[in-house]
Amino acid sequence: MPRKLLLPYKSVFSRFRAPRGLHDSLAMNAARSGYRVFSANSTAACTELAKRITERLGAELGKSVVYQETNGETRVEIKESVRGQDIFIIQTIPRDVNTAVMELLIMAYALKTSCARNIIGVIPYFPYSKQSKMRKRGSIVCKLLASMLAKAGLTHIITMDLHQKEIQGFFSFPVDNLRASPFLLQYIQEEV
């Protein structure tokens, strides 16, 4: 992903203020910036995006391990204290959508039970957003996913180009629906 396309994240991340009473034992960048950034996906593309975002912000990537057990279950281990901090979870959606959703849910729940103050999901492509209308004898899967994310502990979502902007009404917490087209047009005009 080109560095210029990461510009909207800077303004969104800067809205969250530093938590009060940080202890000396917390990482240096948490004390400096007031937030932590984690990669929720075990794929290389998600880790690369998270690294680029943290480089752009001048922060370190949070220490966590996300992997699949031999029986297919997802396991997430948070390797540092997140108590009282604002946490951003970067999650890209690879081909295996259901595994990515479970990784996000489990990581959000692990951070919630570790007493994170706010858990913000950064999901460039929101899964199941095309299933936002009732079909004959069907269900609105996007609404179910919104409920699951809220129950897991997410307090905010940042996404790009939702299939329909009305999807934001499914959530019980704020959703920032960024538009990618202005940044893509700018990049094409300047670079191509």
TrEMBL record:
The keyword DNA-binding does not apply. One of its GO terms (cellular component) is ribose phosphate diphosphokinase complex. Residues 42-153 form the Ribose-phosphate pyrophosphokinase N-terminal domain. SUPFAM superfamilies: PRTase-like. InterPro entries: Pribosyltran_N, PRTase-like, Rib-P_diPkinase. GO terms for molecular function: ATP binding; magnesium ion binding; ribose phosphate diphosphokinase activity. The keyword Nucleotidyltransferase does not apply. Keywords: Nucleotide biosynthesis. GO terms for biological process: 5-phosphoribose 1-diphosphate biosynthetic process; purine nucleotide biosynthetic process. It holds the Pfam family Pribosyltran_N. Belongs to the ribose-phosphate pyrophosphokinase family. This is KPRA protein. The lineage of its organism: Eukaryota, Metazoa, Chordata, Craniata, Vertebrata.
